[in-house]
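hey team, just a heads up i'm posting the complex here instead of the shared drive bc the drive is being weird again. everything in one block, sequence lines first with there labels, then the predicted structure for the whole assembly after. its four chains so it's a bit long, scroll down
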Amino acid sequence: MGRKIRLGILGGGGDSLIGVLHRVASTMFDKYELVGGVFNPKWEDNIGFANELGIPTDRIYKDFDALVEEESKLPVDERMQVVSILTPNFLHFPMAKKLLENGFNVICEKPMTTTYEEAKILKETLQLAKTVFAVTYTYTGYPMVRQMREMIKNGDIGRVQKIDSQYYQGWINPIIHDKEKRSTTWRLDPEKSGISCCIGDIGTHAFDMIEYVSGHRVESILADLNYLYSDNKMDIDGTILVRCENQVKGVIRASQIATGEENNFTVQIYGDKAGLKWQQENPNYLYLLEDGQPLRVLKPGHSYNSEISLDGTKLPPGHPEGIFDSMGNIYKGVAKAINNEPYDHGEFPTIIDGARGVDFIEKAVESHQKGNVWVELDK
Amino acid sequence: MGRKIRLGILGGGGDSLIGVLHRVASTMFDKYELVGGVFNPKWEDNIGFANELGIPTDRIYKDFDALVEEESKLPVDERMQVVSILTPNFLHFPMAKKLLENGFNVICEKPMTTTYEEAKILKETLQLAKTVFAVTYTYTGYPMVRQMREMIKNGDIGRVQKIDSQYYQGWINPIIHDKEKRSTTWRLDPEKSGISCCIGDIGTHAFDMIEYVSGHRVESILADLNYLYSDNKMDIDGTILVRCENQVKGVIRASQIATGEENNFTVQIYGDKAGLKWQQENPNYLYLLEDGQPLRVLKPGHSYNSEISLDGTKLPPGHPEGIFDSMGNIYKGVAKAINNEPYDHGEFPTIIDGARGVDFIEKAVESHQKGNVWVELDK
Amino acid sequence: MGRKIRLGILGGGGDSLIGVLHRVASTMFDKYELVGGVFNPKWEDNIGFANELGIPTDRIYKDFDALVEEESKLPVDERMQVVSILTPNFLHFPMAKKLLENGFNVICEKPMTTTYEEAKILKETLQLAKTVFAVTYTYTGYPMVRQMREMIKNGDIGRVQKIDSQYYQGWINPIIHDKEKRSTTWRLDPEKSGISCCIGDIGTHAFDMIEYVSGHRVESILADLNYLYSDNKMDIDGTILVRCENQVKGVIRASQIATGEENNFTVQIYGDKAGLKWQQENPNYLYLLEDGQPLRVLKPGHSYNSEISLDGTKLPPGHPEGIFDSMGNIYKGVAKAINNEPYDHGEFPTIIDGARGVDFIEKAVESHQKGNVWVELDK
Amino acid sequence: MGRKIRLGILGGGGDSLIGVLHRVASTMFDKYELVGGVFNPKWEDNIGFANELGIPTDRIYKDFDALVEEESKLPVDERMQVVSILTPNFLHFPMAKKLLENGFNVICEKPMTTTYEEAKILKETLQLAKTVFAVTYTYTGYPMVRQMREMIKNGDIGRVQKIDSQYYQGWINPIIHDKEKRSTTWRLDPEKSGISCCIGDIGTHAFDMIEYVSGHRVESILADLNYLYSDNKMDIDGTILVRCENQVKGVIRASQIATGEENNFTVQIYGDKAGLKWQQENPNYLYLLEDGQPLRVLKPGHSYNSEISLDGTKLPPGHPEGIFDSMGNIYKGVAKAINNEPYDHGEFPTIIDGARGVDFIEKAVESHQKGNVWVELDK
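-- predicted structure starts here --
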C-alpha cells in the first residue's frame, strides 16, 4: 500500500458542496487517501463530520494551526502530502502561506486570495517552498475544454482573432431586490467577500478560461459593472472589454442577475481558420466551426482527441461524465506533479493563474470606478 | 378584384437575395400584387428580369425618376400604392425622400439612410407626406420575437434588468486577411457603404431588436470596434456597452470575423421575475427562464401565444416557418396600415426605428474614435 | 408575359391550411399564376374566397365538372396547365382521373386515393394521358432531405443496413378519450376517411420518406396498430416492422396519441460506413454520424451540398427556411417537368410513390387484422 | 470509524471500465470502503491491481472460492458486507448463488444470469438468504429518470397509453462485416455470451427502463431480430413490439449496427394528459410535453423535483453530473438497504428486475425464431 497520496482537507464540512466535489474528485483515480483535516470550525461538527465520512478521527484537528503543527511532527512518509483549502476566501491566503512555508503541497479553491498583494506574496513564498500548488478553476478539467486548448495550440483555428466568454447565473436575483437580504448576505458584504461579488466569483472563471483555452494573455480591460441599487456595495453583474496579446480583442460577460440562468458558462474563440465553442452546462460537446464545412461536434473519448483530453475521460463515448470528473482530472494532474510523474502544464491551474485571476478582479473594479477606462493587467 | 395592394420594387433584380425575400414575403398573405418597378440599372437586365418573373413589362421603368413621373400620372386607383426600396444603401435616402414627396407609401431596407442627418430630413418629409413608411428589420417579424415583446410588455419577466444581444457572422473572414480583397470589397469601402461595416450591417439589427423586444430605449453607448488591419477602413467587429432608460445596462456584440458563424443572432433579456432568450437560427423557440421553474420553451401557433404572434403564424405547431414568413409578417402589417385596418405598433418597424438605427451606427463609430467613451444617443 | 404556368386549385378555400401552403409554395419561384379553381363547395364561399385572394372571378367555377368543361373549351395557351387537388381524400381519385383524361397536369395531395385499386386505375390513366402527375409528400422538398437522399445514393454511408422512421403527433389525444367526440370526428369515420387514420395520414409519409431517402423499396411489413377503444373504428397509432430490398430491416412508428408531440417526424438511416439523421421540426440540420469522426451537422446553402439540395435553398446559410419553402421546391420541380426542362427524379413524388403509399396503408391494416403477420407489398 | 460498508469486488481489474464505474460510484457518498476481492484471474495481475488501487492486499484472494471461504471465517463486523460481481456474464449466477448462500449482500451486473432458469433459482436462493440483492441497471440511477418515474407514478401524465424506447449503438459495425472478426469476437459467441448479443446487452436495459419509469409490466412481446450474416450466430439488432398491462402498447428498438451512434438510449412515455421524454446522452434534461402548454424542461437539483430525484443530486442546478453519479445513486440506495435505513423501491433494481430482464431476452429470441410471433413473459 502506501501508494496513495495522503490528503488533508480544510473546510468543506457539513453539507458544503465544494467539499463533496473535492472529496469525490480525489478518489476518482485511486490516487488520494483522505487522512484528516479540519472540516468545521466547531469541534463537534468537525468530529461528527469525520465520523460521517467514515474516516479515522486521530488526524482531525481542532484548528488549522494544530494541523500544521501536528502533521509536521509526523514522519515524512506519514505526513499529509497535500492539503486542500476549501475555507472562506479570506482564509485562503494565510492558510496557503503557512502550508507552503511548512513544506506542504497545496490545492487551493479560487479566488486564490482576496487581494493581488497577497497573491504576489504567495508567489514568492512558493518560489522558496518549491512544492506543488494548484488553484481549482474546476472547469479547466473538462476533457473538451482541454481539447479546445490543444486544438488552438496546434493551430486548428489559425490565428486567434476574437474571444467571447459568458458566465451567467441568476441566483442573486431573489436576494438583490430585497433591501434586507442584500444588506445581510455575506456574498454582498465587502468585509467578508473582498471587493467584488460577481467578477470575483464567476468573472474570474471566465478570465481564466479564455487565457487557458486561447493561450493568449489578457493585457488590458475596460469594465462596466452593475450594482443595481445604490446601497448595494458589490457588483452583481458586469461586462468587461478585453484586449489580449497580439491585438486580439474580446469580451467577458458575467452576471448573477441573469434570472433563471443556472450556471451558463460559455467560451467562444474564433481564429482566422475556424472557431471553437464550448458550454459548461453541456460539457461533452465541443463545436468546431469552419467556413464551408459542416459544423463538427467533438465528444470525449474518441481517438481524434488529444492525449490530455483522453487522459481525462474514463468511459467510452456516450457515457456522459460531468463536473465531478472535471475536478477529478485536476486532482489527477496534481497527483502526477506530487509523484514527480510527467504532466502537461494544462493539467491543473497554477499559482500564476491564481494570481492573474485576482489581479483581474482588482483591475475590473478599478476600471469601473474610474469611469469605464482601460486598465492594464500586471504581466 | 382590385383588392390587392399595387406594389413596385426598386432594385432586387438578377439573383439578388433581398429581392427574393421581399417578393415572396409580399405574396404570402395575398395582399400585394407586384405591378412594376426598376429591378436593374441596365434596361435589358431590367426587362429581362421582369420577363423572368412573368410580370407585364409596361410598368417596368428605365430608372427611378421615370417610375415616379409615370406612376404619378396614373389614376389613383391604378398607381403603385407602395414602393419597396432594395437598392444599395446610399440610394435609400434620395429615393425614399422623393417617393414620400410624391405621396407614395414606402418600404425601405435597412440601414434606412447612410447618415443620421438624412434620417432626420426623411422624418420631416414623412410628417408632411403622411403616408406609410416601414423599415425592414426583418427579424422583428418572427412570431416568437413578437411573442417575446408582448410578454415583456405584459410584465411576464418583471422589470427588465439586463440586456444582451449577439450578432455573429464569419463571412468577411476570407476577405479581411487578403490585402487585395479587403481594399476592393465594396462593403469595406466607406465611399460606398457609409461609415461602418459590421455595426452598420448587423449591429444595427441587434440594436433595433433590443429596443423592440425590451421596450427600453438605449440612451448611451460605449463602443470598442475592431478593424484588424491598419489599412482597413471599416469596422468588422465590435462590442458595445449599452445603457438604457431605467438604468438598465446591456451589451451588443457584433462580428463578421466570428469564423464559421452563419447568422448567429441572439437576444437575451432578463427581468427581476424571469428571463427570455431567442436565437435567429432556430427562430421557432422562445426560452422562458424562471427561478425554481422548469425551463419553458414556447413555440409558434399555440394558443398560449399573444394575438400578434399568432397572427404571424400560418400553420399549426410543428410546421416550421422561417425567414420568408418573418418578412411576410412585416409586409402583412404594412398592408394593414395601407388599407387603414387596425394594426399593432409592433407589426412593422417605422421611420423612428430606422432613424434610431442610423444614429446608433454613427454614435458607435464616434465612441470608438474618441477612445471608447460614452456617447449619448438622440432621443 | 405568359411565362408563368397557369394553375387551378380544387379545395383549399376558407382558412384551409393546406390551401395556404400550396398557394404560397406556388408563388415562391415566380413559376405559377393562380388563374382560378373551385375553392369551396358553396358558390358564395367560393367567390368570396377568390375575392379575398384578389384574383379574377371569371375562372372560378361552380363545381369540378364545370371547371373541366369550361377550361377544356379555352385555347391551349389560356387553359389551366395544372390543377392542384386539395379536396377531401375520397375526391382525389375521381378528380385526378377526370383531369388526366382531359389532358391536365395534376398536383395531388396525399393519400393519392382511398384504395389501392383506385391507385392502379389512376396509374393506367396516366400512362395514356402522358401528362405530369405529382403527389405532395411535402417533406421530401426540404433541402436537407434531398441532401440525405443524394448522400445515400452517392454511397456516403455505405450499404444501407438499418432504417428507422418516427412520425409522432398528439393531436387526437383530446378527441380519442371522449366517446362522443371519437364517434363524430370525420377523421375517425371510415366512411369519410378510408380504412386508416394514423397510418393513412402520417404513417404513409414515413413510408414514403424512407423509400425516398434510402433508395430502398419496402418489400413486406408486419403491423401492430392501436385503436385504444373497442368502439373506435380507426387506428390512431401503430408500429410497423419493415423489410426492404437487400434484406434491410427497419421500423416505422406513427402515432397520434403521443401526447404533446406536434409534428415530430424523424428519419434515421444507417449504412455500413456511416449514419444519417433528420428531424422535420428542425429541418435545416442533417446529422452525419461516422465511427471515429466528430458528428457533422450539414446545413442548407453550403457548397458542400448536392445540386438538388442547393437548388431548393433560396438564401445563404443561417437564414432558416421552412415548410413553405419545402413545398415550394416541389412546385418548382413540377414546373420544370411541365416546362419540359431537365429535372431530377427526386424533385417531386410521382404517381408511383403515391400508389405505393396507398398500398402500404392497406397492407398495414391487413397485417394488423390478420394478427400481426408479414404481408408483402405490391412491386 | 467502522461506519463504512465493507465492500468486496469480483472482476473489474486492469483497465476494465465497469470496474472504474463501480469503484468510483461506491465512494461518492462516503458509504463504502473497498476492503478486497478478486480483480483478475491471474494472481499477479490481481495483486498488481490492488497495489495500483492503493488498497491492502491481505484480503485480495486467489479466486472466488477462497474469498468466500476466508471472508466467512472473519468476525461479522470485519467480514465483507457486500460483494459486487463484475465478472463475465456466465459467472454471475454461480457467484451470486454462492454468495447468497453464505449470507453476503450482493450487487450484480446485468444481465443477472445467462438463463431464466438460473434466474429463478437465484430468486429462490435469495428468499432463503434474506440479504440485499441489487442488479446494476445503471441508468435507473439518473436523477431525471427517477423524476420521470415519480411523475408517472403521481399521475402527472395521466394514464399511460404509449411506450417507446430506443437503445442505439454502432460499435459492432466494424466487426460484423468482417467474417474473421465476427467469428472470433466473444460477444458474438453463444458459448461465451448466452443466446443474445444486442438484446442481451442493451435491449434488456430498454426493457428494464420502460418497466421502471412507466410502472407497467410488459406482458408479451413480438421480436424481429437481425443477424445480418447467415454465419453470424448472435443478434446485433432488433425491434420488439411490446404489450404491457392495461393494454398499453409500445416498442423497444435496440441496435449495435446504428453506425456512429455512441450510447443513444432514449425513453418516451405518453399518457392521456402529457408525455415525458429522456435521453441518456443528455441525462440532465427531462422533457414534459403537455397539449397546449409550452414544452417544459426539468433539470436536476431544483425543488420542483421529487425527493428521490433530489436525493440523487449532489450539486446545485447547472453543475452537470453524469453516469458515475447515476451509478453512485444506486450504490447509495443499496447502502441504505444494507444499513436498514428506509429507502424507496426505486433506489435500486432488485432480483425481480434482474430476472425479468433475463426472461425478456429469452422470449425475444424465442419470438424471433418462431417467426415473429407473440410470446408471453413470465409474470
